[in-house]
Structure prediction request, 299 residues.
Amino acid sequence: MTGSETIVVTGASGQLGRLVVADLRTIVPEAHVVGIVRNPDSATDLAGRGVELRVARYEDADLVAAALAGADKVLLISSSEASRRTRQHRQVVDAAKAAGVKLLAYTSILHADTNPMALAVEHRETEALIRSSGLPFVFLRNGWYTENHTAGLAVALRRGAVLGAARQGRISAAARADFAEAAAAVLASRANQAGRVYELVGDSAYTLAEFAAEIARQSGRPVDYRDLTEADYKAQLQASGLPEEFAALYAESDVKMAANALYDESRHLSGLIRRPTTTMAQSVGAALARIPKMHGGSS
Ligand SMILES: NC(=O)c1ccc[n+]([C@@H]2O[C@H](COP(=O)([O-])OP(=O)(O)OC[C@H]3O[C@@H](n4cnc5c(N)ncnc54)[C@H](OP(=O)(O)O)[C@@H]3O)[C@@H](O)[C@H]2O)c1
Prediction:
């Protein structure tokens, strides 16, 4: 497309990627938005809406290089394959460098440079290799998705309790859609974004006890917060079906949240999206609306 930018989004079939692609197509309709997927069958809806898809697994350097051909800007959405991510991300960074992209945006983690969570290690490594690549970069240091909590809402209602190991730690979570909108705003921006580091969090924070109380308030059912040891919480996560590696990571994350590892008072996120971030209460309401039978809704 002559005269317009080509913006390539990795992980386009994922929950965040889909939202970013949709937002970009709204905010910068003149841009050529390309989604990288590893399995085109999981993104037929995107193709149906006219999004150009390029197929590449992060592990395949040739395919990643082909997928980034002609890219002006790239959003590298961090891989969901914990413990393999740094190697995977390196392929995208190398390909972006070879393609001469003008901006590489990366979805990192809040306070990646000092964040004590085990989940932060690969983000720190990725940020370091992006910096050393010499590419113009922007780091989108995403905090916690509120959906990480609301995903367990039906179970919490059945059990009458939210489980965790975060004690009274305050969590500045925001909706995944807020983070997506911010990423799209940065990619669409006419301002020079190179070298910027955004600490992206919700405007207000909550404890898991406050989260449980909000579920109880909106559902009219008794729900409290039960704080567990790291080992017990990990066991509960495994019992609910999470593989051990992820259960360990999530339990460890909660323990670090007890020390406010995901707390921040910056307003970078609401500044980028030019509106207040989605509140925890709104996210609880939206999640409850998806399980109407359990809280007496009508549809
Ligand atoms: N901030 C938070 O609270 C939080 C929570 C969870 C995750 N995250 C991070 O944020 C990222 C985006 O979140 P999300 O909710 O969109 O996750 P998601 O729905 O699991 O999406 C992950 C995306 O990465 C793609 N992917 C994974 N491994 C790949 C590989 N080897 N080659 C190519 N593509 C690969 C997936 O492709 P398929 O569709 O083919 O699987 C999918 O498109 C996650 O990957 C994770 O790093 C952050």
